[in-house]
TrEMBL record:
Organism: Bacillus cereus
One MF annotation (Gene Ontology) recorded for this entry: magnesium ion binding
Catalytic activity: GMP + diphosphate = guanine + 5-phospho-alpha-D-ribose 1-diphosphate; IMP + diphosphate = hypoxanthine + 5-phospho-alpha-D-ribose 1-diphosphate
One Gene Ontology cellular component annotation held by this UniProt entry: cytosol
Protein name in UniProt: Hypoxanthine phosphoribosyltransferase
Role noted for this protein: Purine salvage pathway enzyme that catalyzes the transfer of the ribosyl-5-phosphate group from 5-phospho-alpha-D-ribose 1-diphosphate (PRPP) to the N9 position of the 6-oxopurines hypoxanthine and guanine to form the corresponding ribonucleotides IMP (inosine 5'-monophosphate) and GMP (guanosine 5'-monophosphate), with the release of PPi.
Organism ancestry: Bacteria, Bacillati, Bacillota, Bacilli, Bacillales
Enzyme Commission number(s) of this protein: 2.4.2.8
Needed co-factor(s): Mg(2+)
Keywords assigned: Cytoplasm, Glycosyltransferase, Magnesium, Metal-binding, Nucleotide-binding, Purine salvage, Transferase
Originating gene: hpt
Source organism, top-level taxon: Bacteria
Amino acid sequence: MNIEIKDTLISEEQLQEKVKELALQIERDFEGEEIVVIAVLKGSFVFAADLIRHIKNDVTIDFISASSYGNQTETTGKVKLLKDIDVNITGKNVIVVEDIIDSGLTLHFLKDHFFMHKPKALKFCTLLDKPERRKVDLKAEYVGFQIPDEFIVGYGIDCAEKYRNLPFIASVVTE
């Protein structure tokens, strides 16, 4: 597969400003309380790392991996849990951090999965949102940017495991 970067959709500066805004919203919502941040691997790791550096609350971080894509660029419709969390979230304030909400299938699956653990609060934070692609009724409480239905890379998001290291979000053309 040939991959070519088409346009920069969101600059490094815009990303960093939005991360600070989201961190401030989370701080206000959980003022003086501890938070467990669960980053959905692999795509959200850069965003989650930047986000937690700006949150002044006590933060515990853990990781989960689930996918509805496999090795494809289109969702299979079935979500598979690849790695579960290690921390106990019962009675805790939990923020699930995702890189992008597309179909919503993965986060819908994770929402049900986390509710079984009985957290005090469960909220979702996504850097990017494509609401027109949604296949389930799901909204994140914290949204960075709504973007058009384009294939994108950068800031942790990959195409065939490449381009995660870009400091900006770009649209790509694949052949």
